[in-house]
C-alpha cells in the first residue's frame, strides 16, 4: 500500500468554483420512504429494461420488476415492498420518455430472500459477475454503463489495472466524498471483489487532493491489502474524474480514439458502484438505493441523501427543507455535465448523483456570438479537439467534416463552453453532431 | 551548355507528351453520352429530393443503375413524360404532392414549458428535455425545415411556427426528413383542408398543452365519414375521399384544428 501523487498531467481542463462546502460536512442521511416511488425502466444508456410486473401486483424490496433487454442493459428491482399502482411512460431526467413502474410502499420494506456471499474469496469470478448482473448494478458516477459488461472483458483484452474513481471532480457534488469517509472499509472490500473478478494485479484508488480526509480514510482501509495497491492523489481540476482522463493520470496510457479502457488494460469503477458491488456480493442486496447530493444556495439544508431509486425530485427537495428564495435553474447531476430540468416531477435513477438548485444570480442568459478564434476552447479541451472548428462545422450542418475532425471523441465535459468568451453553445453543438452521426450510422446499418 | 539544356528539356517534353497522349487514349473514361443528355432534361434544381446528390447523379443512376424514372418530384408530370420518353419506358405521374406542417399551435395558442436558450435548431432543441414546447409533438419553430428547403418555401411566422407555402413547394421532401417532430407530411396539392395537429396524446393532455389541438372526439369522422380516420387519439385526413360537407366538419371540430388553408392566407 502506497500513497503517491499523480505524475501524469491531463491535457486542458478548467477550474470552476467548487462550492463543495455546502454539503461536504453533512453525513449521509437516510430519507424515509416517500408515498410513491416511480421506477423508470430506462436507468442508463443502452436498452431500457422490460417490465415484468403488472398493475396490482405486490412486490418485495429487491424483486425484479424489469429484466435486462440485451447485453448493454441491467435489471431493475423494486426499491421497497408495496403495490404496483401503474405502468406508464414518464419523463426521465434527460427529457426522453420511458416506461416507469409506480410503486406505493406498504411501509414494511420487506426484502425478498437474499443470498449472501460473505466468503466471496472462494467464489468463482464468473459467478461474481453474474451476481453483479443480477443485482442490476450500473455505473453510478456517470452515464450508468452496466457494470457486469465492464467486468466481462473479452479474453484477448486482459485487465491489469483496476482504478477506483473517487475523484468526484464535478463542482457541488459530495456524495462520493461522503461514501469514502463513511464506508471506506466496504469500498475497499468491494474493490477487492472487483479486482478478483478481473484478475487485475494493480489497484489504484484515485482521489483529488481537495479531499484529504477521504484520502486518509481510504489509505487506512487499504493498508492491509496485499499486492500492488496505491492511493493516487490527483491534482484538483475538472475533469480529473472523466474515465479516459483518469486512466491517463493514473497509468499514463491514452485510450485510443473510439476505443474502451479495456484496450489499455484498465477498468475504472466509481466508488459508489464499488460499494454497490460489495453490498450485492456480501449481503446479496440488489441495487435499490443511492446517495444523492441535494445542494445549491437556495436549498434550506443541503445534504447527502440516501434515497430509494425512483424517489421524486420534489420529495428529495422536501426532505432537505425545500428552498429559500428564488430558484433559476434545477440541474440533475452536476453543473458541468448535468441536465437542466423543467419540473421536479421526475424521479431518481441509479445515476442521479446530484440535484442542484441555482439562484438567479448564478445563471446568466446569454446570446451566442460568432467565434472570435481566441483558441481558449482548444486549450481547455482534455481530448485534444478543436471545439471551435467542430462547432462551426455542425452549425453549417457539415457533419462529415465534423466526424473527420473527431467530434465523436468529445466526452461532453463542457470545458470548452465554460471557457468560451463568445458564449458559444459548444457542447450542445457537439451533442447535436454526435447524435446526428450516430443516427446516420444506425440508419445505414438497417 | 545551352544546347544540352534545350535538348534535355525538349526530350522530357517529348516523352511526357507521348505519355499523356497514350494515357488519354488508353485510360479514357467513357461516360455514356445519354447521361449528359438526360441531365439536360431534368429540371436542374439539384434539390436532392430524388435521393441522389443532384440532377446529374440521378440521371446517371437512371441510366447506369436502372433507377426508377418517377423520383423527380419538382419536375412534375411534364418532365416525367420527357424522362419516360427518353428512356423509352412508360410511367404515369400521380398528382403533385406538397409539404404541409401539421401543427397549428403557435406561440399564442400553445405555450412553452421553459426558457430554451440554446442552439436555434429544432433537432438541437428537441434533444433538450424533449423540446421547450408544452406539447410534445408540436412545431418547435426553430426552422430546421426552412433551412433544409432548397426553394425557401417554408416560413417561420412571427408567432413561432413553420408554414409551407404550397405554391412554392417543389415536393422534394427534404423538410419531411429534417423535422425532429415528424409533423411534416406530403399531401395532394389540390387539397386545402387538413387536421392541423399531430398530437397522439389523450384529450385532457392535449387541452392543457394547446388551444387548437385534436382531442380525439371523433366528431370529424361522424360528420365527414371516410374522409377522416382516427389514429389513436388523433384524427387524420384521408385524402383519397373528398369531404362532402366541409363547412359542417370545420364548424363541428371542438378543437378548431380542422382548417381550410386559404391559398392567399399562406402566401
Ligand atoms: S469538445 Fe468535448 S471533450 Fe473537448 S472540451 Fe468541449 S465538451 Fe469537452
Ligand atoms: S473559445 Fe469560443 S470564441 Fe474562442 S476559439 Fe473557441 S469557440 Fe471560438
Ligand atoms: S416543422 Fe419541424 S423542423 Fe420545421 S420548425 Fe417546426 S419543428 Fe422545426
Ligand atoms: S417545403 Fe419541403 S418538400 Fe417543399 S420544397 Fe421545401 S423542403 Fe421540399
Walkthrough of the structure:
The complex is a heterodimer of chains A (446) and B (267). Chain A is of the alpha/beta class. In chain A, 27% of the residues lie in helices and 20% in strands. In chain A, the strands form four sheets. Chain A has a six-stranded mixed sheet, sandwiched between helices. Chain B is of the alpha+beta class. Chain B has two domains: 33-87, Electron transport complex subunit B, putative Fe-S cluster (3-methyladenine DNA Glycosylase II, Chain A, domain 3, Orthogonal Bundle); 97-260, 2-Layer Sandwich (Alpha-Beta Plaits). Chain B contains eleven helices and eight strands. Chain B has helices spanning 2-26, 33-41, 55-65, 76-87, 122-127, 144-148, 174-178, 203-209, 219-224, 246-252, 263-266; strands at residues 97-101, 154-156, 162-164, 184-188, 193-195, 228-231, 234-237, 258-260. In chain B, the strands form four sheets. Chain B has a two-stranded antiparallel ribbon. In chain B, strand 6 (228-231) and strand 7 form a beta hairpin. In chain B, helix 2 (33-41) packs across helix 3. Chain B is elongated. Classes of the chains: A alpha/beta (446), B alpha+beta (267). The interface between A and B is medium-sized, with 22 and 17 residues. Residues 99, 148-149, 151, 153-154, 164, 169-175 of chain B line the site of one iron/sulfur cluster (SF4). One iron/sulfur cluster is lined by residues 101, 122, 139-145, 162, 178-179, 181, 183-184 of chain B.
Amino acid at each position: 500500500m502506497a500513497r503517491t501523487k499523480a505524475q501524469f498531467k491531463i491535457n486542458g481542463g478548467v477550474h470552476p468554483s467548487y462550492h463543495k462546502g455546502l454539503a461536504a460536512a453533512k453525513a449521509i442521511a437516510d430519507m424515509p420512504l416517500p408515498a410513491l416511488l416511480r421506477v423508470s425502466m430506462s436507468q442508463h444508456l443502452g436498452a431500457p429494461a422490460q417490465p415484468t410486473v403488472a398493475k396490482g401486483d405486490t412486490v418485495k424490496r429487491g424483486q425484479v420488476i424489469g429484466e435486462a433487454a440485451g447485453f448493454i442493459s441491467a435489471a431493475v428491482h423494486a426499491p421497497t415492498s408495496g403495490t404496483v399502482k401503474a405502468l406508464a411512460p414518464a419523463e426521465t431526467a434527460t427529457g426522453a420518455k420511458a416506461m416507469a413502474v409506480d410503486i406505493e410502499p406498504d411501509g414494511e420494506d420487506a426484502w425478498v430472500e437474499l443470498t449472501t456471499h460473505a466468503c466471496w474469496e472462494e467464489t468463482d469470478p464468473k459467478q461474481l459477475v453474474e451476481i453483479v448482473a443480477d443485482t442490476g448494478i450500473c455505473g453510478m458516477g456517470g452515464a450508468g454503463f452496466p457494470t457486469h459488461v465492464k467486468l466481462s472483458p473479452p479474453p484477448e483484452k486482459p485487465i491489469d489495472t483496476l482504478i477506483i474513481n473517487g475523484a468526484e471532480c464535478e463542482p457541488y457534488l459530495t456524495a462520493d466524498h461522503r461514501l469514502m469517509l463513511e464506508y471506506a472499509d466496504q469500498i475497499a472490500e468491494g474493490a477487492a471483489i472487483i479486482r478478483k473478478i478481473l484478475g487485475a494485479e494493480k489497484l489504484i484508488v484515485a482521489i483529488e487532493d481537495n479531499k484529504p480526509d477521504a484520502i486518509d480514510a481510504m489509505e487506512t482501509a487499504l493498508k492491509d491489502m496485499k499486492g500492488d495497491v496505491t492511493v493516487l492523489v490527483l491534482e484538483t481540476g475538472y475533469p480529473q474524474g472523466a474515465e479516459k482522463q483518469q486512466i491517463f493520470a493514473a497509468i499514463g496510457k491514452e485510450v485510443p480514439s473510439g476505443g474502451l479502457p479495456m484496450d489499455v488494460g484498465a477498468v475504472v469503477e466509481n466508488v459508489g458502484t464499488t460499494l454497490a458491488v460489495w453490498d450485492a456480493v456480501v449481503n446479496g442486496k440488489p441495487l435499490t438505493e443511492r446517495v444523492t447530493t441535494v445542494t445549491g444556495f437556495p436549498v434550506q439544508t443541503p445534504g447527502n441523501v440516501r434515497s430509494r431509486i425512483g424517489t421524486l425530485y420534489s420529495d428529495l427537495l422536501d426532505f432537505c427543507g425545500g428552498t429559500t428564495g428564488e430558484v433559476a435553474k434545477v440541474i440533475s447531476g452536476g453543473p458541468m455535465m448535468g441536465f437542466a430540468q423543467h419540473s421536479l416531477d421526475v424521479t431518481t435513477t441509479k445515476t442521479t448523483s446530484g440535484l442542484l438548485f441555482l439562484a438567479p444570480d448564478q445563471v446568466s442568459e446569454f446570446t451566442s456570438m460568432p467565434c472570435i478564434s481566441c483558441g481558449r476552447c482548444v486549450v481547455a479541451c482534455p481530448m485534444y479537439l478543436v471545439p471551435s472548428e467542430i462547432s462551426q462545422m455542425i452549425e453549417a450542418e457539415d457533419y462529415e467534416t465534423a466526424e473527420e475532425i473527431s467530434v465523436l471523441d468529445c466526452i461532453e465535459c463542457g470545458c470548452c463552453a465554460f471557457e468560451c468568451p463568445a458564449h458559444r453553445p459548444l457542447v450542445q453543438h457537439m451533442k447535436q453532431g454526435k447524435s446526428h452521426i450516430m443516427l446516420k450510422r444506425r440508419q445505414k446499418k438497417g | 551548355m545551352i544546347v544540352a539544356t534545350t535538348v534535355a528539356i525538349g526530350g522530357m517534353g517529348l516523352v511526357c507528351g507521348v505519355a499523356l497522349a497514350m494515357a488519354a487514349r488508353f485510360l479514357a473514361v467513357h461516360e455514356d453520352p445519354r447521361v449528359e443528355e438526360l441531365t439536360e432534361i431534368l429540371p436542374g434544381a439539384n434539390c436532392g429530393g430524388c435521393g441522389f446528390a443532384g440532377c446529374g447523379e440521378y440521371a446517371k443512376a437512371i441510366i447506369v443503375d436502372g433507377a426508377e424514372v418517377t423520383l423527380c418530384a419538382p419536375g412534375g408530370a411534364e418532365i416525367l413524360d420527357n424522362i419516360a420518353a427518353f428512356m423509352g419506358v412508360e410511367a404515369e405521374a400521380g398528382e403533385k404532392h406538397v409539404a404541409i406542417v401539421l401543427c397549428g399551435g403557435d406561440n399564442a395558442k400553445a405555450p412553452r414549458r421553459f426558457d430554451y436558450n440554446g442552439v436555434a435548431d429544432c433537432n438541437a432543441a428537441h434533444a433538450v428535455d424533449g423540446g421547450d414546447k408544452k406539447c410534445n409533438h408540436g412545431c418547435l419553430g426553430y426552422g430546421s425545415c426552412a433551412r433544409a428547403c432548397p426553394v425557401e418555401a417554408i416560413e417561420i411566422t412571427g408567432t413561432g411556427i413553420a408554414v409551407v407555402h404550397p405554391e412554392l413547394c417543389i415536393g422534394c421532401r427534404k423538410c419531411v426528413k429534417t423535422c425532429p417532430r415528424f409533423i411534416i407530411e406530403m399531401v395532394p396539392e389540390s387539397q386545402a383542408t387538413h387536421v392541423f395537429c399531430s398530437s397522439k396524446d389523450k384529450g385532457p393532455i392535449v387541452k392543457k398543452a394547446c388551444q387548437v389541438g385534436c382531442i380525439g372526439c371523433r366528431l370529424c369522422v361522424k360528420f365527414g365519414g371516410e374522409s377522416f380516420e382516427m389514429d389513436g387519439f388523433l384524427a387524420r385526413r384521408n385524402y383519397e375521399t373528398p369531404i362532402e360537407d366541409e363547412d359542417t366538419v370545420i364548424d363541428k371540430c371542438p378543437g378548431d384544428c380542422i382548417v381550410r388553408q386559404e391559398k392567399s392566407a399562406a402566401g
